[in-house]
Structures are given as structure tokens and as C-alpha cells.
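Student: Please help interpret what follows.
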Amino acid sequence: MRVWLTAKLAPDAVQVADRVGRLQHLLSVIVDWDAIGKAGIAVLGVAGAALQLRSEGRGRRVQLRKDAELLKTLPENSKAYEMLAAHIDRQVDQLVERETLRTREPFSIVLGLVILVAGIYVGYLGIAGGSWWLLVTLPTAVFLILLAIAGLARGIPKKVRDAAGRPIEDKKPEQAQE
């Protein structure tokens, strides 16, 4: 009775509610929120690992401090003093080079991650759709994932780069500063 009364009094409201219901159903078919949640958890795991690797530089500094304290305890005319001093000098040079001259390319990293997510999603849609969708989406997904891996492989390693962000392969870090 209530539905009949609503349909008689406000037919536009019934049509709007029907369209909203269809839209919600369409979104639930297109977007798999469970898969998005799982992917989000995976991204958080990768981000945590990246932060852990980023803090690795702090560990090098702690080790350098310990080495410097050890150097103070050694007699200055000993061979161990000279070897440890040379080791500390090399480590400081590497640390400065790593932190100032070598950079990553953030655009390639972000673009690679976006393309990777798109490739995984296209592959998921193909597998979930089945039948002939798999023939269309699987090669596309593989291509997108390979493209993403190439972009990430280009952007993630820290390298000496020119002003445009392109890696400088043949120059040493001292030459790139000039």
C-alpha cells in the first residue's frame, strides 16, 4: 500500500530512487571494494618497507659515530688508526655522495605505481569477467605491468642526474657538480 501511495503521490521520487538503486548496483559491480582494501593494505606494507630502507642512512651515521669514538681510543701512530681513519673517510665520502648527489626520479616512480595499479586492476577485471574479456584484458594488463616495472626500474635507483632528471652514466659524482 505504501509503495502504491508513494508512486501515486510522487512518481518522480520513485524514479529517482530507482535510478539511485541502479547506480549503486552498477558501482558495486564495477568497483570491488574488497579488492581495493586488500590492495591498500599491500601498498601500506610497501610504504612501510620503503620507510625502513630510508632510515638505513641513519644507521650509517650511528656506525660512523661509533667508528669515530673507536678512532679516538687508538694511538695515533698505529697502523690500525690509519686504516680506521681511511675507512671513516671513505664512508663519509659515500654518505655525502648518496645524500647530496644521487637522487631518485619521483615522476617515474609515481607514474609507474599508477600504471601498476591500473594493470593489476585491468587484469583483475579480466579474470573476474571471464570468457572473452580475458582475451582482451590479460595482454593489456601484462603490457601495463611491464610498463610500470620499466618506469619503476628507471626512477627508484638513486643516481647522479642532470637538471632535467636524466641519469648521467659516464660521469663521476665529482664531475657532475661542476
In short: Residues 131-155 form the longest helix (25 residues). The chain has a mean pLDDT of 76. Residues 124 and 141 are 9 Å apart (CA to CA). The chain has eight helices and two strands.
